[in-house]
Design a protein that fits this description.
The chain has about 240 residues and is an all-alpha fold. It has ten helices and no strands.
């Protein structure tokens, strides 16, 4: 009796496993199609599901089989957008190449480029969460994610030079990331910005540097913004700073 009832259950599980890659592929096609259409759409205009389905080469019913509804689809779209943003910024944050100043300029430049090139995606992150059950919009979640990633980097470097984490890294990284995003967004939305793109990047990078420098000095560290960061770390770790 038990073996007879277990076979149908295992058969269902087997079919689900075989179909999973196919369903994953369809979900990815739908999300990527939605993002492509979103980038092409005017500000504030919602892309209809039927249009997304057509762009993906699928029937509308397939979209509803893959996603419980518009809300779930939109969350998945925001999650994909946020992942792309984070990947670009983390590439710019590579500490293995460049001075502190160069890394800051490169990272701020990455934020400016992304927001300039993807204004609709950037706006869409503010329209709701990327996680089910979350009350925080995806842009706020993204800022927290980048700040956490940067904080891990900073606390790791602090450990190398023997500085205990007193919570400064958390406040510092969140302040820099949120300030950068807000300042760049304001500039990007200004039809007649006072600063040029290069001026904005240098200005925001300088703000970030002053925050970093202030926190470092409170911990008894003197940093040279023009020296290669890897060299700075080596000097500080060996007591030569």
């Amino acid at each position: 009796m038990s073996s007879a009832t277990s076979r149908p259950s295992s058969a269902v599980s087997g079919r689900q496993a075989r179909w999973q890659p196919h369903n994953d592929s369809r979900r990815e096609r739908i999300v990527l199609s939605a993002i492509e259409l979103l980038e092409q759409s005017p500000a504030g205009v919602e892309v209809p599901i039927v249009q997304i389905a057509e762009h993906a080469g699928l029937a509308k019913s397939v979209v509803y089989r893959q996603f419980a509804g518009r809300d779930e689809l939109d969350r998945r779209i925001r999650s994909e957008i946020a992942d792309r943003f984070v990947a670009d910024i983390e590439d710019a944050l590579d500490i293995g190449e460049g001075s502190i100043h160069e890394i800051l300029v490169r990272t701020v430049g990455g934020v400016v480029t992304w927001i300039q090139e993807h204004p609709r995606l950037h706006d869409f992150l503010r329209t709701g969460p990327s996680e089910a059950g979350s009350d925080i919009d995806a842009m706020s979640e993204l800022i927290g994610t980048i700040a956490a990633s940067t904080r891990t980097l900073v606390t790791g470097l602090a450990g190398v030079v023997g500085v205990a984490d007193d919570g400064s890294a958390d406040a510092m990284t969140f302040a820099i990331v949120s300030m950068t995003e807000a300042t760049v967004t304001r500039w990007a939305n200004d039809p007649n910005p006072v600063l040029t793109r290069s001026q904005l990047i240098e200005e925001v990078a300088s703000y970030a540097w002053h925050v970093v420098d202030g926190v470092a000095r409170r911990h008894g560290l003197t940093l040279d913004p023009e020296q290669q960061l890897t060299s700075v770390i080596t000097q500080l770790a060996t007591g030569g700073g």
